[in-house]
Amino acid sequence: MSAKTRAIRIGNRTIGSGRCFIIAEAGSNHNGSLDKALALIDVAADAGCDAVKFQLFTADKLYPRSAGQSDYLGVEKPIYEIIEEMELPVEWLETLAEHSRHRDLVFFAAPFDEQAADLLEAHVDLYKIASYEMTHLPLLRHVARKGKPVIMSTGTANLAEVSASVAAFRETGNEDLILMQCTAKYPAPLDSLNVRAMVTLKERFSLPTGLSDHSRDPVAGPVTAAALGADVLEKHITLSNRLPGPDHAFAVEPGELAKLVRRVRQVEAAAGTGVKEVLPDEEELRSFSRRALFSTRSIAEGETFTPDNIAALRTGKLRRGLGPEHYEQVLGRRAARRLPPETPITEDDLE
Q1: Which residue range forms the structural domain that includes residue 228?
Q2: 142 with 115: CB under 8 angstroms?
């Protein structure tokens, strides 16, 4: 990505430093069990993630009771009841935050209403605005005014809507916003991820950007994002795809999360610094295999150098002479001394 953005400090991590900030999205996959929630934190830490994220909402502040069923879930139960079963108890927050700190993870959550944002404030250094809340400008402004960094997903949005949300955020005086390309489909097909939109967002808004990946594949989306310079990566996690609940089936399991982190770090290592220079790993073959000028037969003192008696050959372990870029300048000159065959030709060998 070519757009320049400033780095944002989060605890002992930095977003925008050239190292992807990897978030394990625990979401509501705790299934109402504190032990499962703590286990999800351990999964994130063991995999090498930077952060673990939960969601803080109540059904009565998300949907009317009469909202009906969600077709995509394929469950004959009102969405209100499903959301009610997924609520995270507020009394868990301190325990989850403390355990995350103990495991050297940034702990944060997505608030879905102003009260939830207020309840989180004492426990987080970072907030998340979910895709469906991106256009809820009163909530966005309320969170922004807390003066903490905010990650905002942009699923279901077009560029004009993102622009309006960014403007509303910046009006509060808070500049610490990170934008996430996201496809609001669960699971999202790989050909719907549109990871390049992450680059578009960075270039358009000069903000750190990343990918919130809802695909089931543990590697394809994340490594694509890493290769394109993602500042942040988010992936849903679960203890098991067989657990009941709407978000388990498309989340990655512990071993897959570890593979994801490992592959992203490998891509980052392969991407390098972008500075074109001689690398330490190249020094041996730079010396051994680069060409230099050699005599190809015995050359008498005073004899003219011609294509018949000199050539540009690879040096191997012999002493290095003039480089092949001097070949045309050496032709027609005379030898200052007798040269045996396979002698490196130096400046001192020229009359």
Answers
A1: 12-271
A2: no
Q: What separation in angstroms does the CA of 198 have from each of 1, 30, 110?
A: 9, 29, 20
Report how far residue 233's alpha carbon sits from residue 11's, in angstroms, rounded to the nearest whole number: 17
Task: Kindly state whether residue 160 falls inside one of the protein's structural domains.
Answer: yes
Rounded Cα gap, residues 135 and 217, in angstroms: 29
Same domain for 231 and 257, yes or no, is yes
| Residue 1 domain-assigned (yes or no) | no
Which residues are CB-neighbours of 171 under 8 A, at least 6 positions away? 141
> Residue 312 corresponds to which tokens in the numbers above?
């540009």
Q: Which single residue is written with the structure tokens 């939109």? A: 197
Write down the pTM of the prediction.
0.89
CATH number at residue 222: 3.20.20.70
Q: What is the pLDDT of residues 312-336, one digit of tens each?
A: 999 999 999 999 999 999 999 999 9
The CA distances from residue 258 to 24, 25, 41, 164, in Å, are 11, 14, 13, 37
